[in-house]
Write a sequence for this structure.
């Protein structure tokens, strides 16, 4: 994945609940040192969040450049994934309710009290 500035993988995992076997899938994060949209700090944060969530195989590499695809990283990722890529069977269970508000893993969920706009 390139250009990631948030951990959408863990959010999707909690929403779709594909099972723990999905956490064995390789994830290759590619980050440009000069990227101002998805900064190297964002990528480190995404990797740490995925690892805390239980993903076992998360690799982060950086390259000199901005917010763009890096061909050598694509080649390394494909080698790492194995060619041809093998699909991991994933059982999908539809969610029973809407996912919680997006939040970092170590923080409490954000809840807002309804506000009455009625004059007193």
């Amino acid at each position: 994945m390139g250009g990631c500035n948030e951990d959408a993988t863990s959010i999707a995992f909690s929403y779709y609940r594909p099972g723990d076997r999905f956490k064995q899938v390789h994830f290759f994060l590619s980050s440009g040192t000069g990227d101002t949209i998805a900064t190297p700090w964002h990528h480190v944060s995404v990797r740490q969040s995925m690892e805390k969530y239980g993903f076992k195989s998360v690799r982060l590499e950086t390259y000199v450049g901005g917010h763009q695809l890096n061909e050598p990283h694509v080649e390394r990722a494909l080698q790492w994934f194995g060619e041809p890529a093998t699909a991991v069977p994933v059982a999908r269970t539809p969610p029973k309710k809407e996912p919680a508000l997006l939040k970092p893993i170590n923080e409490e969920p954000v809840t807002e009290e309804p506000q009455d706009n009625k004059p007193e």
